[in-house]
Amino acid sequence: xxxxxxxxxxxxxxxxxxxxxxxxxxxxxxxxxxxxxxxxxxxxxxxxxxxxxxxxxxxxxxxxxxxxxxxxxxxxxxxxxxxxxxxxxxxxxxxxxxxxxxxxxxxxxxxxxxxxxxxxxxxxxxxxxxxxxxxxxxxxxxxxxxxxxxxxxxxxxxxxxxxxxxxxxxxxxxxxxxxxxxxxxxxxxxxxxxxxxxxxxxxxxxxxxxxxxxxxxxxxxxxxxxxxxxxxxxxxxxxxxxxxxxxxxxxxxxxxxxxxxxxxxxxxxxxxxxxxxxxxxxxxxxxxxxxxxxxxxxxxxxxxxxxxxxxxxxxxxxxxxxxxxxxxxxxxxxxxxxxxxxxxxxxxxxxxxxxxxxxxxxxxxxxxxxxxxxxxxxxxxxxxxxxxxxxxxxxxxxxxxxxxxxxxxxx
Length: 411
Known about the structure:
Blueprint: H1 3-28, H2 37-63, H3 66-71, H4 74-97, H5 101-112, H6 118-129, H7 138-178, H8 186-194, H9 207-225, H10 229-244, H11 246-249, H12 252-265, H13 267-273, H14 281-310, H15 317-344, H16 352-360, H17 369-377, H18 381-410
Helix pairs in contact: 1-6, 1-14, 1-18, 2-7, 2-12, 2-14, 4-5, 4-7, 4-15, 5-7, 6-7, 7-17, 12-13, 14-18, 15-16, 15-18, 16-18
C-alpha cells in the first residue's frame, strides 16, 4: 500500500468531522441563530443527561462481551497512561507558562483527556470502509473496530467524568472564591466595623460561672470518649463519602457505562436484551438509536463553540502552543514508544487494527465534553472556545498525518 493511499484513507474520516463542524459553525452565525447560547446550553444538558449515557451503554452492551474484555485488557491501561502522561505534561505547562488559576483546570483537562469517543467512532469505521486499508476485509474490520472504539469511548467517559470533571469543578469553584477579597467571617467583619478602636476587655467570668463551664467541658469530653471505635470508623467513612460527593462522581455517562457492562457481560442479561432473538431487544435498539445522535449533536455543538473562538479571548498564546504541542507532538511520540514496548513484551496482540486504535488514542484532540463541563459550571467557556478553535483547526492536519504514520507502522 502506497504512502498516498494511506494519506487518502486517513484524510476521509477527518473530512467528515470537519464537514459536520462547519455545519455547526453555520448554524451558530447571527444570520441563522439556531445554535445560539441558550440552544447550546439546552443541547449540552441533553447530551450530558440522555444522549451520552445512551451512547455509552448501548454500544457497550452491543459490542463488548466478557471474552472481549479479557482479550482487550490492555486498552484500559493504555487510556489510563494517556491521562496520566497528559496530566503530568499539563502540570509542567502550567508551571512553565505561569497560567492564571482560572485556566489551570481547563489546561489540565485538555492535556489529559483526548476525544476518545466521537473521533474513534467516526475515524475507525470510515477507515475500514476505504479501499486499500491495511486492516483487511471491510465488514470484519468495521465490526472489530466498533468494539475497540466502543471500549475506548466507555473507558474514556469514565475517566473524563470522574477525573477531569472534578478537576474543572474544583478550579471553577476556586476561581469564584478567589474573586472575593480576603473573606473573613461575618461576625469578625461586623465586630471590626462596630469597634474601630482598641478592643475593650470583657468582664471576667465569676468563679461559679467558671466551674459550670469546666463541668460542661468535662461532660462533653466524656461523651466524645464514650463513642465506640466502630462508630468512629463509621463517622470517618461518612465524612470521606461526603467530601467525595458520589453524586458528582457517578455522572450519567458512568451510570450508562455500568448498565452497558452489566447487559453485555452477564449472559442472562445479554440473552434477554442483545441479539435478533432477544425478547427485549427493542430496549437496546431504542437506546442505540438515541445514542447514535450524540456524535452528530456533540460535533455540531463543537462547531458552534468554535465560532465563539473566532471572536478571541484572553488566552495566552503560550498556553495554546503548549496544549497543541502536548496533544499533537509529545503524547503521540510517547505513545509510539509505549506501544512498541508493549508489543515487544507480548502485552498487545498482533491485530493491526487494535494496535492502530491504541496508537490513535495518544494523538487525538482534546475531549469535546470539556466544553459541556465549562458550560455546566459557567466558567471558562470563552477560553475553551479559543483553545478548541486552534486545536481542532490543527487536528485536521495532525490527525491525518499521525493516522497515516500509524497505519504504515502497523501494516
